[in-house]
């Protein structure tokens, strides 16, 4: 099956490579003509994957129509807040029935919508799916092994997409819990910022572990309110990705938190999706009466209305309660 990968950043590049390595004819669309030339002529994407030599078979185009010719599966790999714009470009261009696999992780800030809701709204004839799990683009582009989950409401579609997108070093499990896979991926980014801030502020590894564990409780509570299944949140797209991003400065969200905790400048930092998702996640939790103090603290720290010292003070002085309450 022919796969079209839309989005020329780190993750789009890595997924275009895995699709090719999995044996699929693959087109790769990016909007930046200079980056297209760099991929096609020098086999690199210097803006997003500097220093990584790309497979010579990978070619890119900035012509969306050309990328979509014959496409039987589309991977949408722009940032979460840009998904609506990318979907709008597909209206009238993508063939009905072609699945759109969302590879971004986030919740739309302006509407509180899940990304699959945006696809359903903009492209009602194209079934949405989501690919999520522990996967740093640099690792995947280098051919290091990992496993992710591919979800769609239709279990058969999810299984077909998991077979299609698997490659020798890229193992895709399937799931019919689309909501669970989306929410796990979106919320882990907010918690990764919190984990980075804890380390940046010098609070130590014990605090980091306690925060990530209690953050996971919040992720499960918020996930449950969306109808996510607990076992999905315990899987690759929830716990798996949380472990990865809350424990490594290779994560851009963790690195953002690290800088926040250290009091460093945040100007010019790479994309950290949790920055856009924290506020809307905190709002959703508050609207639904869900206790989510870590998510709320991240939101206020990002807004500049709470210092990390005060956040720690607030979290530690909350009323004591049973752990499973
Ligand atoms: N990088 C990773 O390791 C990784 C892994 C898994 C998932 N993701 C997710 O994938 C998504 C994209 O991340 P990334 O790492 O590729 O980001 P990136 O910052 O490396 O690249 C973003 C790309 O999107 C393009 N873009 C931005 N707005 C656009 C628009 N309106 N239309 C078309 N293209 C647009 C940019 O030009 C750039 O090429 C994020 O949601 C991220 O959470 C990233
Ligand atoms: O670098 P981050 O924090 O965007 O994380 C990338 C992926 O989501 C890891 O699975």
From TrEMBL:
Q: Which GO terms describe its cellular component?
A: cytosol
Q: Which GO terms describe its biological process?
A: carbohydrate metabolic process; glycerol-3-phosphate biosynthetic process; glycerol-3-phosphate catabolic process; glycerophospholipid metabolic process; phospholipid biosynthetic process
Can you state which reaction this protein catalyses?
sn-glycerol 3-phosphate + NAD(+) = dihydroxyacetone phosphate + NADH + H(+); sn-glycerol 3-phosphate + NADP(+) = dihydroxyacetone phosphate + NADPH + H(+)
What EC numbers are recorded for this enzyme? 1.1.1.94
Positions that bind sn-glycerol 3-phosphate = 105, 133, 135, 188, 241, 251-253
Q: In which pathway does it act?
A: Membrane lipid metabolism; glycerophospholipid metabolism
Q: What class of enzyme is it?
A: oxidoreductase
Compartmental location:
Cytoplasm
User: What name does UniProt use for this protein?
Assistant: Glycerol-3-phosphate dehydrogenase [NAD(P)+]
Q: Which organism is it from?
A: Mesorhizobium australicum
Q: Which gene encodes it?
A: gpsA
